[in-house]
Every structure is written in structure tokens, then in C-alpha cells.
Amino acid sequence: FQRMFTSLTSRGFRKRTNIYTLSTTGKLIGMLFVRSLDRSERVFSAMVSRGYDGNLKTLVEFEMHTADVLKAAILIAIAVALNVVCLTVV
Predict the structure, then answer these.
(1) What is the crossing angle of helices 19-49 and 2-10, to 10°?
(2) Helices marked H in 1-90 — which ranges?
(3) What's the rounded Cα separation, in Å, for the pair 17 and 11?
(4) Which spans are transmembrane here (predicted)?
(5) Which of 8, 35, 3 is closest to 24 using CA atoms?
(6) How far apart (Å, rounded) are the C-alpha atoms in residues 30 and 22?
(7) Residues 6+ positions from 8 with CB-CB distance below 8 Å
(8) Domain residue spans in the chain?
């Protein structure tokens, strides 16, 4: 977006409240959408050519244990406590 807007300003475009600005902004947003769609298609094509099939491959299958749940609960409790302390200090 920044490069496209820099290109517009180098051609003399200035933001105003008129129909020309609205038209140009609409065209800019449309071009941004088209460019992002094109880029996503190129990225997907590159991923497929490297063997991507939509599934995440891992060496070891993850299994949730009681210790994992306890660690997550402790981390959440610490985060909440820090948030409460920071809010009471201010």
C-alpha cells in the first residue's frame, strides 16, 4: 500500500474531499485487492510445488497431559495477576 500511495503522491495526488479523491481511493483499494489476490496465488503455487498438501507434518504426535493443563492454568493465573497489579498501580 505504501508504495502505491507514494506513486500516487509523486504524480501530484493530494487527499481532498472531492469525487476525484474518492474515485482514486476506490481504484487504489481495488488494485490493492487484485495485487494481494495475485500474490496469494503465487505463494500457494510455490507451496504446492514444494509438496504442501494442507496437512501439518510433525515428527511426534502431541498428546495433552495433566501437567500441560496445569502449566497453562498457572501461566494464565500469572498473566491475570500481573494485569490486576498493573491496573491497581495506575
Answers:
(1) 140
(2) 2-10, 19-49, 66-89
(3) 18
(4) 20-37, 69-89
(5) 8
(6) 12
(7) 24, 28
(8) 2-49
Residues 6+ apart with CB under 8 A from 24: 8, 13
Whole-number CA gyration radius for the chain: 25
Closest among 71, 75, 76, 3 to 35, alpha carbons compared: 3
Distance CA 52, CA 57 (A): 10
- Residue in this structure with the C-alpha cell 493443563, named with its chain if needed: 69
CB 15, CB 21: distance < 8 Å: yes
Let me know the angle formed at the C-alpha of 14 by 9 and 17, rounded to the nearest 5 degrees.
150
